[in-house]
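Fold it.
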Amino acid sequence: MAIHFNDRLARILDDTSHNRRHDIWLWLQLTTNNVQLSGDVNQPGMRSTMTHVISSTPGLSEIIKNKETEQLLPEKCLEWMNEGKRQAEWLSSKLRERMPFSDSIAPLTSGLTGKDLLIASIDSWTINIKQKGSFLNELETSWNEHKKGDKQFKWFEDDEQKCLLAGKLINKHIPLDGLISIKLSVYQPIENHENLLTFFDHANLDHNQKSLFIERVKISWRQQKYRKKLTGKGQYNFILSDKAIARLDKLSDTYELSRAKILDILLKMEAEQNRYIPERMKLLKDES
């Protein structure tokens, strides 16, 4: 948001309406014109530093005014870039694909990250202003289209544990060439839904490869849940007579319970009451 300033720098440049974006652009303009500035961009006192340099260099203020007209788009052209770190990373990657290396401001931007770095790169790009505006329109359309793919990862939204599991399985299930495209600057541990989306924004994988990985995560998730349910339980294999099976099935149908549940109830009742097995043992002894 623009703030009205009437300090010495504002008077030199005939512009009392400025903002953080403009100050960063101005610093980078001076730096690219071989003006020696102490410190890094975005530091406290940068306006005072720039004021001293511009006021002591004849003709520099006019050069800056002309450059501003040539390079800076209206604020409204950038208002849609308001969706946080993930968006800034994706847009920056697309900008790098289009921008010539000679226009890169990376060596000059110590102290800038995320959205600040993105907008500074756009502002300093030495391309025709109309072409720059057209590119941003295309970029906005591409971003909105790209986000439609987020529905593929909707299953992960409700539980960060699912995202953590996905992070653990990435190295195991994603091909190496899909990981090579991930720049270290955007790679971070996958701990939540946004981390996961950001990772796949930059992975060199098509829709089917992403779907296959998601399905593997779902399978592993179900297996974890199943094993958790089995805590405190064990599996036993034993042979029952046909009559015993028929009785078990009849009880299961009557009470609409599983065979395992019927057996669990019967065993629990007998353990508590100690009634039927002793009686049966007595009958067997009498018969013998």
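The chain has a mean pLDDT of 85.
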